[in-house]
From TrEMBL:
Native source organism of the sequence: Candidatus Hakubella thermalkaliphila
Name recorded for this polypeptide: Dolichol-phosphate mannosyltransferase
Keyword NAD: no
Top-level taxon in the UniProt lineage: Bacteria
Domain (Glycosyltransferase 2-like): residue spans on this chain: 11-175
An example Gene Ontology biological process: glycolipid biosynthetic process
PANTHER family to which the protein is assigned, alphabetical: DOLICHOL-PHOSPHATE MANNOSYLTRANSFERASE SUBUNIT 1
Length: 245
């Protein structure tokens, strides 16, 4: 499936119980005149997200849906999408949340910065970025401190390490052994950055405006937070020991 022009781009959208958001997201993506194909990777959502995806695949030429039945998780869904993107030889591979917290019109800016970088993060904390959310103090602290902690422990020179809005050149994902990546949930966001930095890829940020979801429930829970914390501690401590040994 070709998105037009010389370079082909795939936008991967992992979903679980996002029926109420998926149709609006598709409308926003395609009304933004983005030259991208869209791949929704649905984790067998019981709310009918997969069925909505099938309807949208019939409505939009550049919309695909992949149904996953086992091994649920944000990280696993992204990895499945990455494998398909590499197999289908897309030049640029992007990810976006399905809950309308990411503005599809900002994707053009992320893609443009791939002229300079191998990986571009849609950053809430870079200059010009911001968050328009009604979060609890705990949720704000998890977001801010999580990025700061990961940055310190993993040695990442980024302001936003946990944003799911990002773009990669295909060569980045081709260089990674995707089958050996252990993250099942949102810790994938940090694991990928850590691996990219180790391989010397250029990682940049583009400011975005992040808004709160209006429909549905957040997937952030204690298990997700603990998985991410364990990854950062394990790999951060290993990095520090190797650095000073």
């Amino acid at each position: 499936m070709i998105s037009g022009g010389r370079l082909r781009s795939l936008l991967i959208v992992p979903t679980y119980n996002e029926r109420d958001n998926l149709r609006s997201l598709a409308e926003k993506i395609f009304s933004a005149s983005l030259k991208v194909d869209v791949l929704v990777v649905d984790d067998d959502s019981p709310d009918g997200t997969g069925e909505v995806g099938e309807e949208l695949a019939g409505q939009y030429q550049h919309f695909q849906i992949l149904h996953r039945k086992n091994d649920r998780g944000y990280g696993k869904a992204c990895l499945e999408g990455f494998k398909r993107a590499v197999q289908q030889r897309y030049d640029y591979i992007c990810t976006m949340d399905a809950d309308l917290s990411h503005d599809p019109s900002e994707l053009k800016n992320l893609l443009a910065r791939l002229d300079e970088y191998d990986v571009v993060i849609g950053s809430r904390y870079a200059e010009g970025g911001k968050m328009e959310v009604d979060w609890s103090l705990f949720r704000r602290a998890v977001s801010r401190l999580g990025s700061a902690f990961a940055r310190f422990m993993l040695g990442l020179s980024l302001k936003d390490c946990t944003s799911g809005y990002r773009c990669y050149k295909r060569k980045v994902l081709e260089s990674l052994d995707l089958d050996k990546i252990g993250s099942e949930g949102y810790s994938l966001l940090m694991e990928i950055l850590y691996l990219c930095q180790q391989k010397g890829f250029r990682i940049g940020e583009a400011p975005i405006i992040y808004v709160d979801r209006q429909r549905g429930k957040s997937k952030l829970n204690r298990r997700v937070i603990l998985e991410a914390l364990f990854f950062v501690l394990k790999n951060g401590l290993r990095r520090i020991v190797l650095k000073y040994s």
